[in-house]
Amino acid sequence: MALDPKSFADWEIALDAEKRMPDIYEIGRRLGLEDKELLPYGHSMGKIDADAVLRRLGSKSDGKYVDVTAITPTPLGEGKSTTTIGLVQGLGKRGKKAVAAIRQPSGGPTMGTKGSAAGGGLSQCIPLTQYSLGFTGDINAVTNAHNLAMVALSARMQHERNYDDETLLRLSGQPRLNIDPTRVQMGWVIDFCCQSLRHIITGMGGRSDGYMMQSRFDISVSSEVMAILAVARDLADLRERMGRIVVAYSRDGAPVTTADLRVDGAMTAWMVEALKPNLIQTLEGQPVLVHAGPFANIALGQSSVIADRIGLKLSEYLVTESGFGADIGYEKFWNLKCHYSGLTPDAAVVVATIRALKSHGGAPVPVPGRPLPDEYKEENVAFVEKGCCNLLHHIETVKKSGVAPVVCINAFTGDTKAEISAVRKLCEAAGARVALSSHWEHGGDGALELADAVMDACREKNSFRPLYDWSLPLKQRIERIAQEVYGADGVDYTPESHKQLALLQSRDDVNSLGVCMAKTHLSVSDDPAQKGAPKGWRLKIRDILLFGGAGFVVPVTGTISLMPGTGSSPAYRNIDVDVTTGRVSGIF
Question: Which residue, 22, 146, 221, 470, is most buried by CB atoms nearer than 10 A?
Fold first, then answer.
């Protein structure tokens, strides 16, 4: 019997359930793996030999493909991971073989205010502690591979400064790359949120202490290496992409890649094991595939193509998750991930909470670590109805992709019948299926209505289609996303971003580059303070990055940063270890 989530914290529920969980070989067999295809990490986690599975099942038909996205969340989140796990549990209660594909949590939010990405209540995955704290080492591998490129770059710049052409060629076997220190594209990465590392200076000291220049740290999961892990189809594809990463530009304007630095092979070596998807389980024993990282506001924010391909071969329903709201997470699933994978979704779930709808309707925005304002503790149908403009906006975004949207009202114990009824009425009028789901409180039994709605949507023939043709100029593709998905009137570029756009458009491979926007997740606009569905605004782009290996450009909008900050009430204050048992407490 699971603990009551109204009386116990998520970590207490997880630790209690872990006493009874099947070992990882049993979960692998439930998934349909042969024992030799599973590479165990202890008793409760494992990696999957993806090549072996896909060779064995390559001709097998795929199951149904369901993406879970959301409305624009509050800083407290909408519960997409909880809903993903709950839906898989609900499908299991209906006798369906269902599998989840989720992203590995980053140490930044786990130690910050958002917490882990394991779900919550009776709809979470286990083992919680290992999953949340390093897992099988994938993010560590991404961090090391990325930072090795920066080691190679900084060492090369120092040696090019210290040696003449003849000596440099004799010592390195490579002619001068003539790297421009003002056009270094990459920074360093660390898997924590640390605002003091957004702007740094490296190489301070003497000539033997490196090349002195401005640099930065981004969070590890925003690295292009993580994006490559998410989109690569196999090791050969990953190896080829790793050599196309643009680290800097020469003084003549030529790109300097990891292949030019001769570091791409070593970077790939760090990633060999990370390319294998991970396997854990729900509280109710269904398989959960975990691969690639979060943060769709500053990264791709999708589970990997490899994990999804495996899950579809081994299940009747694969439920995958896209980060944050449909304006960024689903848009990237729709126009980037599906382009790379060739897969087509059968349905999309848009998660909404009454709490967030009130926020979009005018209630004070909740602040993590502070008491919830009274407006969220009392019935207020007017706030909910007004805030539904945001939900309706995201429903229309999903419908533009040609996919049937299913709205999941992620139930909280304080939601009232009148508030829920108002949401149902407005969504059904917009042509969306609606399901109330109490999976947090009741697990799979609470997600039966949602499971039924999703199965019904998957029976509907859809007309999935991309938002834009990749042969269009980059400027037109960016503007189409801004206008059709965000609701902007147009796009404004800084002089630097406009110059960068022109350079990128002149590349021979421009039609193979997608558009991966970096934008706040707290608004459909580029201003996190603008709630609802803002009108009469223009998207501001201040920079455009090139992720040549991943195969897309990254327009950086508004004031978004690739390194989040740590707030005044971080989660790490509540995490501790029992020195007698070694059990970790306080992760949520």
Answer: 221
